[in-house]
Fold this sequence. Notes:
This protein is of the alpha/beta class. 30% of the residues lie in helices and 11% in strands. The protein has eight helices and eight strands; from the N terminus they run αββααβαβαβαβββαα.
Amino acid sequence: MASKKQTASKGSGKSTGKGAVVEKGPAGRKDAGKGDSKGLSKSSAPANARKGRAVQVKQPKPWGLIFTFAGVGVVALGLIGAAVFVVWDRSQPPEGVTDFYGEYANYSEITEALQDGDVKEEDLEHPWVVQQTHIDGEDPMAVPEYEINPPAGGDHLSQWQNCTGSVYDAQIMDGNAVHSLEHGAVWLTYDPALVDGDGVEQLAAKVESRDFSLMSPYPGQGVEVSLQAWGVQYQTDDINDPKIDEFMDFYIQNSDNAAEPGAQCANGLTTTVADQQQMPTG
């Protein structure tokens, strides 16, 4: 029978055959037996290290999408800014326009000042901008006279000139054309001594099929092109002047500048001065 000492020796370690003893630690760990506390074996690493722990992989930012959306945003803001500018720009009359309202911006503003008693008609620099009498109401033969030619407002004849994109090849009556301006139309006139056939066609293309506009020759006006709306006028010696289109865009049916808004341009006169001179008088 083995002694207690021998039994203890068997339970605590066994020979390696080289005189070294490998002992088991309290947790069943095998120590190197070198006596160096710093020299741990690979098996001494923590359990989670031996099994391998989950490593989070940092995903790269989607810079492509970010730049794409940023670019779209910049373009959208640019378009919005451009639209705002266009709206603002169209709220301003074109440069170079002569207006006859004095210190007032337009027909609406000057008539409001008259109604409020801030100014009297006789005190206006150009009183005709608020005068709208049909002078042929009592005298059918009456013909209005105007301060400026072509005229841009004032007392006029009771019939308006048809202004549905109407192009006349001969001079029309001033008093009928001014009535059209009262309805919110733009009247384009040209001097036939200064504008040739091709130029006339080019100007006509700006008017044809455009409601609340009309065009006719105006001999002796002295400039190639003159544009009239109620109370305002623009003249130029260049039929390619971009202000021609700008004037039409701004003043056709301009609610602040129409002396009689809501009135029509159809069903008016289509005759010229020559036609009316040939008509029987009684």
